[in-house]
Write a structure and sequence with these properties.
- It is a single chain.
- The protein contains eight helices and ten strands.
- By secondary structure, it is α+β, with helices and mostly antiparallel strands.
- It has two domains: about 120 residues, Outer membrane lipoprotein wza fold like, CATH 3.10.560.10; about 70 residues, wza like domain (wza like fold, 2-Layer Sandwich).
- Helix 2 packs across helix 6.
- The longest helix is centred in the first third of the chain and has 18 residues.
- It starts with 19 loop residues before the first helix and ends in an 8-residue tail after the last helix.
């Protein structure tokens, strides 16, 4: 007598419930990797801004040569053979310095070399016998806004230095700086003119030696450095995920 074939019972193990957190973590990791691959050449630009200047490169002395003296700058005056006329002098509200027996000499608006000529003329000595040097730059400032090293702040204006020279002087950029979003705002308030905005192409200046946008700064210019989308996003993330995000995006450097 034929019997019906036995059917084999399939034994299946119970599946563990899917954790939505795992899927979110995988998606987040993929997104981080994508952002890391799209990062700009910011590390190279950061290194260029903090590296020692090359021999023969523009330094503070070049900018200082074009600096215009004002109140309350502090000047070091030296007149050969006349110690009573030498020493530190603060430019007063009237734009003058006190030279004792010679009275008050106006130096406001002069460069250091121009002030030296005025002092030499008043002292009756050859031009080379009188030197003036600015020791404290107090009368004019540059305003730093955004992703610059240190706090957003005002720094002394040292003369018509370039934007890259200024950024080098203040310590460079933050890891979250958008190198393509650097602008100089020149307000022209004193002249009653419309403000001007200049785009500074750091990538072209530092990586390709193209100086066309490396603007020379004027007193009271504002230097704005934008923030990358990744850095802005990182600041909204939970603290536990922020280090991973910054590492994937190249925002965290060794030793920071």
């Amino acid at each position: 007598m034929e019997t019906a074939p036995r059917t084999q019972e399939r034994r299946t193990r119970p599946t563990a419930p899917r954790r939505p957190g795992c899927r979110c973590f995988v998606l987040l990791f993929c997104y981080l990797a994508l952002l890391a691959g799209c990062a700009l050449n910011t590390p190279a630009i950061e290194r260029a801004l903090v590296a020692p200047p090359l021999p023969g490169a523009e330094g503070d002395s070049v900018a200082a040569a074009g600096y215009r003296i004002g109140c309350p700058d502090v000047l070091e005056v030296h007149v050969q053979g006349k110690p009573d006329l030498s020493g530190l002098q603060t430019v007063g509200p009237d734009g003058r310095i006190d030279l004792g027996p010679l009275g008050r000499v106006r130096v406001e608006g002069e460069t250091a070399s121009g002030a030296g000529l005025r002092v030499a003329e008043e002292a009756g000595v050859p031009p080379r016998a009188a030197q003036v040097r600015v020791t404290e730059y107090n009368s004019q400032q540059i305003y730093l806004v955004g992703e610059v090293a240190g706090l957003q702040r005002a720094v002394p204006y040292l003369g018509p230095e370039t934007v890259t020279a200024l950024l080098h002087r203040v310590g460079g950029l933050t890891p979250g700086a958008a190198v393509g979003e650097v602008h100089v705002v020149r307000s022209h308030v004193a002249e009653g003119r419309t403000p001007e905005v200049y785009h500074i192409d750091l990538q072209a200046i530092l990586m390709h030696h193209d100086e066309r946008t490396n603007l020379r700064l004027l007193p009271f210019d504002q230097v704005h450095v934008g923030v990358t989308r990744e850095a802005g996003f990182a600041r909204c993330m939970p603290p536990c995920l922020r280090p991973l995000f910054e590492a994937c995006c190249g925002m965290r450097r060794p030793g920071r």
